[in-house]
Design brief:
With 78 residues, this protein is mainly alpha-helical. It contains 4 helices and no strands.
Length: 78
């Protein structure tokens, strides 16, 4: 179970897609590969993935354009 921060939601369209993008971004950033997934992730690895995924989703939901803001994107560029 992971808690999320309360935000003022303007739109939830795109939240799931952006959650997935944040998950993939964190996997790339932390070098988590298929073999890691198959062996099972540690609690710390899951925490990093979920933190990134919820941040992407929350930024998307804070706006009306259904994707993360340009500022957020620049901050999380790989």
């Amino acid at each position: 179970h992971y808690h999320s921060k309360a935000i003022e939601t303007r739109s939830t369209i795109g939240a799931g897609d952006n959650f997935n993008a944040g998950l993939i971004c964190a996997m790339l950033r932390h070098d988590i590969r298929r073999a890691d997934l198959e062996r099972g992730l540690t609690d710390g690895e899951w925490a990093k993935l979920i933190e990134s995924a919820t941040a992407f989703s929350a930024d998307c939901c804070a706006g009306i354009y259904n994707y993360v803001s340009a500022e957020f994107g620049e901050k999380h560029r790989l």
